[in-house]
Write a structure and sequence with these properties.
Layout lengths: L6 H26 L1 H7 L5 H28 L6 H11 L9 H13 L4 H26 L12 H14 L2 H15 L9 H29 L8 H17 L9 H10 L5 H39 L1
Helix pairs in contact: 1-5, 3-4, 3-6, 3-9, 3-12, 4-5, 4-12, 5-6, 6-7, 6-9, 6-10, 9-10, 9-12, 10-11, 11-12
């Protein structure tokens, strides 16, 4: 009779399979586009690229901390250090179609600490909702800085969108849509948070989007220094809307192709098509390099922590 696998062994198998799949998809993507990357990377100021990457590091570490804060509010948190490692390693799940691997890997870490997985799953949905809302607000604000007169007659509508934004983040409205999603997945999905708590969390997500938006603007200037500082928020908004569409394109690993197309289309309004094409490609490299470094670092720290605990 075959020996039954224990929970620890199953978790290790899941993590290993996850890592292999994620690295495989990324390797395939960069191999397929190797000629395009090698040609266009020559136009990048690597010093400014490195500075932009630091902002992306801050953005991702802040996201991990925000997710931990959400789990604290909902009574399913684990130790901060382990939560940080779980989040950063799960980032690689973006590169596997379907995006369920991000949640699956995160749950293996929370299961080790006997955290209620149903609550952690709800926190995962809260995080994604807040991410979308934060990016949406960044894009709405960027409409005031649209580089032509197309939106001049629609500024009252933009103000209305801002007002509507603070209405739709009410827990009753969010829970209504989560209930519809829950029926599809046969899960009880509900945000057990007050409006003031949701508002606070969403505002923190908006602030974090401003951080990564500024990093993207620096990246844009590494290719085209002629882009003015008055166009910073517009560039950040383009990155925000590209992220929204990338998240919604659930069958495109990490929004591959979707995000780049939107970035290129938006930036063509303020620069030559050739420069916009370079930035759309380099932005993918910018995100992937940072995420790989963070995930590798988190994995190494996690291993060192486990070895230290065994030796005690």
């Amino acid at each position: 009779m075959p020996k039954k696998l224990d929970k620890g062994t199953v978790a290790k198998i899941i993590k290993t399979a996850f890592g292999v799949l994620a690295v495989g998809f990324m390797a395939w993507y960069f191999y397929r586009n190797r000629a395009e990357f090698s040609e266009k990377i020559r136009n990048v100021d690597l010093g400014i690229f490195a500075l932009a990457t630091l902002f992306y590091f801050v953005y991702k570490l802040s996201l991990a901390s925000l997710f931990h804060y959400i789990t604290v509010l909902n009574g399913c948190s684990i130790r901060y250090g382990k939560a940080l490692s779980a989040y950063l390693i799960s980032i690689l799940g973006k590169y596997i179609p379907g995006k369920v691997f991000m949640l699956a890997v995160r749950l293996t870490y929370y299961k080790e600490e006997d955290a209620p997985l149903s609550k952690v799953t709800v926190c995962f949905f809260i995080e994604n909702v807040c991410t979308l809302l934060g990016a949406a607000m960044l894009f709405i604000l960027s409409l005031f800085f649209f580089p032509n007169e197309l939106l001049d007659n629609y500024r009252p509508l933009v103000l209305l969108l801002i007002a509507a934004f603070f209405v739709v983040i009410h827990p009753k409205i969010i829970n209504f849509f989560l209930g519809l999603i829950g029926k599809i997945f046969k899960k009880d999905l509900e945000i057990p948070m007050k409006y003031t708590q949701i508002l606070k969390v969403v505002l923190m997500f908006i602030g974090n989007w401003l951080i990564v938006g500024f990093g993207f603007f620096i990246l844009v200037r590494s290719v085209n220094p002629a882009v003015g500082w008055n166009e910073m928020l517009f560039c950040a908004g383009i990155f925000g809307i590209s992220a929204i569409m990338g998240i919604l394109a659930i069958f495109a690993p990490s929004g591959l192709g979707v995000r780049e197309g939107i970035i290129m289309a938006g930036l063509m309004l303020i620069m030559p098509e050739s420069d916009a094409a370079v930035i759309s490609v380099v932005s993918r490299l910018w995100q992937t390099v940072a995420e790989l470094v963070l995930a590798a670092g988190a994995f190494a720290v996690s291993k060192l922590r486990k070895n230290a605990n065994r030796s005690v």
